[in-house]
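Students often ask why we bother encoding 3D structure as a string. The short answer is that it lets us treat folding as translation between two languages. Here is a chain of 71 residues written in the first language.
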Amino acid sequence: MYNGLLVPRYGASPCNGGLYRIETAFVDATLTNTTMAATLEDYTEPFALTPSTGGTSIDGDGNIYISDTNL
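And here it is in the second language, the structure alphabet:
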């Protein structure tokens, strides 16, 4: 996801709602550092208050598209 600062970020939305983001460098580091993997949630930050969704997509311009689970 493009955040305007050229810092690559990964976005995730758990099934109970909320959209969180984390720099991809932290996610990449977990491939070789098991200690980092255990503390990965310390590097996440809330991004948007969203309901529980059926799916989330982000385009190249940073627009977020959220589907409704009740359809």
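Translate back mentally: DSSP finds two helices and five strands in the chain. Keep this in mind for the problem set.
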